[in-house]
Amino acid sequence: QVQLVESGGDLVQPGGSLRLSCAASGSIDNIFVMGWYRQAPGKQRELVAALMGGGSTNYVDSVKGRFTISRDSAKNTVYLQMNSLKPEDTAVYYCKHVLHFGANFREYWGQGTQVTVSS
């Protein structure tokens, strides 16, 4: 069983930076993809950034050039570095891991961490 714990959310001024962390307990050797999602009040949850097991990354257009997803395999942790934050980045941020078991996939979610961008 894999459990994910996010941390790093905070209140930050526009233009500021934050780094979110998502620490996994349990083995994630068979990781397929790791992702960061966010959900703002009254909006649907959206994928912000994804890191495939092979190392390739994808970002939603609104964060390209500002956010970076990365991984520390030794710590079983995935990060989201967020720079040049804007008020529209305000949301609860969730991490998700998808693991593969042969032809089957299983997904795990963290509990979320609040990011508020405001002056």
Secondary structure elements and pairings:
Blueprint: E1 3-7, E2 11-12, E3 18-25, E4 31-39, E5 46-52, E6 57-59, E7 67-72, E8 77-82, E9 91-101, E10 104-109, E11 113-117
Parallel strand pairs: 2-11
Antiparallel strand pairs: 1-3, 3-8, 4-5, 4-9, 5-6, 7-8, 9-10, 9-11
Number of DSSP helical runs: 0
What is the makeup of the main sheet?
7 strands, mixed
End-to-end C-alpha gap: 40 Å
Beta-strand percentage range:
over 45%
C-alpha Rg, in Å?
Answer: 14 Å
Helix content, binned percent: under 10%
The class by helix and strand makeup works out as mainly beta
The unreliable regions are none
Shape: elongated
What pattern of helices and strands is seen along the backbone? EEEEEEEEEEE
What would you note in describing this structure?
0% of the residues lie in helices and 57% in strands. The chain has strands at 3-7, 11-12, 18-25, 31-39, 46-52, 57-59, 67-72, 77-82, 91-101, 104-109, 113-117. The mean pLDDT is 96. It has no helices and 11 strands. It is elongated and about 45 Å long.
Write a short abstract of this structure.
This protein is mainly beta and 119 residues long. The chain contains no helices and 11 strands.
Keywords:
elongated; four-stranded antiparallel sheet; 119 residues; 11 strands; single chain; mainly beta
